[in-house]
Specification:
With 83 residues, the chain is mostly helical. It has helices spanning 5-16, 37-50, 67-76.
């Protein structure tokens, strides 16, 4: 199972209760007030749920502090479709 970049933005928006349009690959955690430590956990849970438990196996995901870092990790693990 894989997701697209648009799916990733939608998941981030839902996890953080923020408009998905607020996210691009260049978005950093510090730019989104809702992306605090609890928000990051929400992101990880939402991604893990959507991707069948595979995100929990990616240790580096816990410290990914930008959309690009998350996308790169997902691509590396073949969970994000190449755009």
């Amino acid at each position: 199972m894989t997701i697209s970049e648009a799916d990733l933005f939608a998941i981030l928006g839902k996890a953080l209760d923020t408009n998905p349009a607020a996210f691009t690959l260049e978005t950093k955690a510090e730019e989104i007030p809702e992306w605090d430590s609890m928000g990051h956990l929400s992101i990880l849970v939402a991604l893990d749920t959507r991707l069948g438990g595979k995100v929990a196996q990616i240790d580096e995901m816990a410290t990914a502090s930008s959309v690009r870092a998350i996308a790169d990790l997902l691509k590396r693990h073949q969970l994000l479709k190449e755009s």
